[in-house]
Amino acid sequence: MGTPIKDVVLRPDAPKTLLLDKHADYIAAYGSKKDDYEYALSEYLRMSGIYWGLTVMDLMGQLHRMNKDEIIEFVRSCQHECGGISASLGHDPHLLYTLSAVQILTLYDSVSVLDIDRVVEYVKSLQQDDGSFTGDKWGEIDTRFSFCAVATLALLGKLEEINLNKAVEFVLSCMNFDGGFGCRPGSESHAGQIYCCTGFLSITGNLHQVNADLLGWWLCERQLPSGGLNGRPEKLPDVCYSWWVLASLKIIGRIHWIDKSKLRTFILACQDEETGGFADRPGDMVDPFHTLFGVAGLSLLGDEQIKAVNPVLCMPEDVLQRIGLRPEIAS
Amino acid sequence: MHGRVKLKSTAQQEEEKRKEKEKKLKIYLTTRDACFNKRKEGVLDEEALQLSQQLLASNPDFATLWNYRREILLYLETVRSEDEVQRLYEEELNFLETCLKMNPKSYGSWHHRGWVSSRLPRPDWARELGLCDRYLYHDDRNFHCWDYRRLVVKMSGVPIEQELQFTDRLIGSNFSNYSSWHYRSTLLPLLAPGSAESSSPQRECSSPTSSPQMHSHRVCEERLLKEYELVQNAFFTDPNDQSAWFYYRWLLGRAEREEMISCVYVSREGERVVVAFSRPVNALSVGFLLVVDGQPLQVDWRSAHSCVRHSPVWICELPPGTISDTSNEHNLTVTWTEKRTHRDCALYSGRAESWCRDSATDLELFRSELSVEKSSVLQSELQSCTQLLELEPQNKWCLLTIILLMRALDPLAYEKETLAHFQILKEVDSMRSSYYSDLCSKFMIENTILKMEYAEVRVFSLCDKSLSTLCHLDQLLLVTHINLSSNQLLRLPPQFAMLQCLEVLQADNNIIEDLEGLRHLPRLEEVSLRNNRLSRLSDLRPLTTCPKLTRLDLRGNPIAQATSIRSELADMLPSATDLLL
Ligand SMILES: [Zn+2]
After folding, report:
1. Contacts of residue A3 in chain B, CB cutoff 8 Å?
2. In order of start, what are the domains of chain A with their CATH numbers?
3. Interface ipTM
4. What is the third-level CATH fold of B175-256+364-447?
5. Model pTM?
6. Could you list the residue ranges forming a coiled coil in this record (chain B) (predicted)?
7. Which entry of A312, B320, B381, B458 is 20 to 30 Å from A87 by CA?
8. B537: exposed, middle or buried (C-beta count within 10 Å: 0-12, 13-18, 19+)?
9. What separation in Å is there between the alpha carbon of A238 and the centre of ligand 1?
10. Do A279 and B442 touch (CB under 8 A)?
11. What is the model's pLDDT at position B350?
12. Residue B552's beta-bridge partner residues?
């Protein structure tokens, strides 16, 4: 009485080549659908949405098609008195969108339009006594926010402004029996969270604390017969989890433990030939989020039509080179 | 954005959908603006609660609206009676339940529920635990709900035993339940005898050393045997269920390495000291102290491979003249102040070098993949797994577990069987063959180090072992001659630079295309890399940092075919006068 493996079956007519032009058209058009109901519903994460769109355009060499001046002005206008940045006008500041904003402005080499000292003050103000970070002043604690905090500060060259030892101690207290990480101490391992925590340890130079052989085993077991990766045992494969697992494996120096060509086939099959863009799984609706992680995943797999992506910050390597940021990668 | 299937529709359906969405958009925007306007004007009333409720019911990820509600509720707390506040918060909980029904995976809803529960004048934790029960019976993998459960358990002091029984019930109805196994891994260590707070789950995991990954050994033996029974039940019922196997691997444990200075090496030439630690450290931030002949010395430590901040091997040069006179004897002490441990090393007169290394660690070190104290337990576990393998000869989980058990019992005696099992694993689970190759390489390197005789501390061979990766290089600090020929190595990784005494390297017949680790090896003289995949001059650039290199054999590499390669190499590596191309 075995439990059947949850997976998808790729159709023989699924896309097998990378449709870069269609993806670029899809992203370029996405921002112009401003009177769309779904677009309005996603306002609460607009800043991240812009980061996804810009990053994937930059990876495809199409950043010039986006409206740079309008975007920079929008980001600037979302900084609040406290220094934090919100997803959109009228929304409250949050670490998630503070990081997205700093990533956007780093792509455009324009972080100076922000009041940087205040951004730093904001990030500092969210660190708790145990080293953890809340996402905003309302107290939700999560290792995602630890990642957002150090990624934001690293991009601004201000990493030493927080209590790094405590921050590291907290993230390590979220390490589990399987070598993975969860949201908080005691929380189950999850590929998204593992990405945040290995990324955090990379930025702070503490990757030696990871049991790479144990965690790498758990991560490579995320690959299903379809080639796609899931985010936890017994879950369906998904393009975004494929990125999080793949990036984590890259960070801990174990990317060769999965079958790269099968994963590539899965990611390509998640493209929509009509509209452009990537979906979570073949046959689902596309969105900019999965489009970025599909393209970024292909970049990590070595696709030469795409710029090299940094696995820790999910930004083009040439951008990080420009600002001199080199997060640790284990070998 | 997840799991929304793309449907084909007619033009008419499209048009109807468009009109409907247009209407919805209008309502949505009107309500949002009304909400935002009220907030801007500082209005904190129940009408605002109503308005935001309409929006959140369909869009619980709209975090700012939860914030607005909290502001309103906090204000109302100050102007209403306790009973009214109680009622308000209970209504909030009811509203949250409708939100969770719609979307049980919204971060915002669960966080708000925790916030409301903590504000209730008269909290009802039993009700909250009941809610978790219901949601987890419906979806036993909802990690938001699991996390909320942990909060409820902590706030209301639910006994650990009761929580273990809860996971018993979930696992009993479905073995394939990773979340429950995970929960058990956090609960069991809390039941360890001798820890005063162990009966209360309120104890926070506050330091990195209290995470379950590192504290497997704290599970008491009686409990452990019961767990073996439970998990064996699971994998005998469904041998392909990975959850039970992951849990089992943890249960079998892994040893922690004692933190110590494993080796101190000193060389008169270059007046160098090299120190190896049992785990990577950052010498620039941990306190460690070098004393030569009773004098503390200020030296600059650098890691053997400079690309990372933490390394097990650190190097320094002593002030010129400290130990250069061979007629003098010197005594060195390296102290790791933080860990209150030190290692001494005496350099006698007439000697060019000296070392002091810990030799007793090898066994503990390499059995560390699994380490339950009692080998009788491991023996009986091995028997069970072998029985299962007879029923399921292709079961990869069973094969891998047997390998780990054999290593924990006797790595050398079981070497042949281990290799045979790895071979099957690579065939039945080809997607992960690189994982199995690397793990097998690691075990073969460990076995070779275990078998190492005293003399081999300097001359070490790993040839013809199908190695796909190199590890434990910090253990080879003293090696002067290494043979890595006839393996499947793709590269000499940065850690290779930890072989600070290396003079002769043989790595023929591999698939090496990267020499990143051949950096700053002060004594390296001969390098043989016949029949590899070195193709570009830049691949050889690391060798320019090895000042003593005289002999380099590159026969059988693509680069050897390049025109004018000999003169280019002569320019790049002037000391290498003995070039074989
Ligand atoms: Zn996804």
Report:
1. 176, 238, 240-241
2. 20-323 (1.50.10.20)
3. 0.96
4. 1.25.40
5. 0.94
6. 4-31
7. A312
8. middle
9. 5
10. no
11. 95
12. B527, B579
